[in-house]
Amino acid sequence: MLLQRRLGERLQTEYRSDTVAAHGMFAFYALTLSHVKKWEVIRAAGAMGVPLSERTLSLAVEVYAREKGLRCGPKTVTTFASFLARDGTVCHLLFVLLRAKKNELLPEFQGLPRTVFSEAEQADILHCVARRARQDDGFRAAIPLLRALVQEDDPRCFFQALTRAVRATDTKGSGGGDSVAGKGVAPTHTSSDELSLQVLVASVQGLLREVDTLERASRRGTPSGGAAMTIRASVKEDARGAELQSLDESDIPAGVRELARMHLLEEAAQSNRAARLRTAWVNPDGTF
Fold first, then answer.
1. What is the dihedral of CA 87, 92, 95, 101, to 10 degrees?
2. What integer pLDDT is reported at residue 177 of this predicted model?
3. Burial class (CB in 10 A: 0-12, 13-18, 19+), 216
4. What is the phi/psi pair of residue 88, to 5°?
5. Ramachandran region of residue 216, left (φ > 0), alpha (ψ -120 to 50) or beta?
6. How many separate domains does the chain show?
7. By residue range, what is the domain housing residue 273?
8. Structural domain contains residue 105
9. Is residue 262 one of the residues assigned to a domain?
């Protein structure tokens, strides 16, 4: 604790910047495998109004990708998304939000709190996106997708929300053309409109490639063997069930049989707890 305090105070004193101190503490906790505390730095920076630098956000997205977002709860995701909308890249923002929605569909996350943005957080993120869309084609192309990701709470209804967001964006964008058509004048498609459409299509394709690159990098960065671990777990469960059945059919005394049964059930509970600890961002006992 003394080393951590000295590191934070030294960075803030030498560079006169809380941003540098936040970067140093996040890197320190990431290197020391303090999985909970490093994300507490992000939440604390958001609560205190400390801006994060581009390198801090890039490092945080890389760590988030390697962990597949499994160690980030809803509060961390909402704070992280606000930072990325303000100072990050659009592909990083899309990756974090899409990964959070994907995780919420996993069986391990059933019954856990979902990522829900408040009205103030939605307004702040969409305002930052609209402001940056004036100069960045990527943000302009991703507005419908980002609006659906921020406003829809249920991941199973995400595609319906995306359809509504696209229609709303098309309605706003074609308002001028509809008024002209109402006056009996046929709308004309100029070469500049076609060029802007091509730019938007290229931007969307580039964003999807970058998000896919982050997804593949997270798969490479995560230890392999997930399928093998699942198979081994199922084999162990079958073996434990067979052992319980053979225990019931044996001729050993009832007291000894009950003690053996309790021991086997305790082992099963510990193995399930260890599996939950590896995947879920909450306490393995189910408390927050």
1. -20
2. 44
3. exposed
4. -95, -170
5. alpha
6. 1
7. 240-279
8. no
9. yes
Q: Tell if the pTM clears 0.85, that is, is over it.
A: no
Average predicted confidence (pLDDT) for the chain: 72
Any domain includes 259: yes
Tens of pLDDT, residue by residue over 198-240, are 554 555 555 556 656 666 665 555 444 444 444 455 556 666 6
Instruction: Classify residue 185 by its DSSP letter.
Output: P
Say if 268 falls within a structural domain: yes
Q: Which residue has the tokens 């500049």?
A: 192
Enumerate residues 6+ apart whose C-beta is below 8 A from 157: none
Summarize pLDDT for 82-128 with one digit per residue, the tens: 999 999 988 889 889 888 888 888 877 878 888 889 999 999 999 99
CB 49 within 8 Å of CB 37:
no
- Residue carrying structure tokens 């109004």: 49
Confirm if 151 and 122 have CB atoms less than 8 A apart: yes
Q: How would you classify residue 168: left for phi > 0, otherwise alpha for psi between -120 and 50, otherwise beta? A: alpha
Integer Cα distance of 176 and 128 in angstroms:
25
- Which range of 41-45, 168-172, 279-283 scores highest in mean pLDDT? It is 41-45
The full DSSP string for 30-88 is HHTT-HHHHHHHHHHHHHHT----HHHHHHHHHHHHHTTTTT--HHHHHHHHHHHHHHS
User: Token digits for 92?
Assistant: 């990083």
* HSE toward the beta carbon, residue 103, CA cutoff 13 A: 26
In the numeric block, the tokens 């982050």 are attached to 214
pLDDT tens figures, 20-67: 888 888 888 888 888 888 999 999 999 988 889 888 999 999 999 888
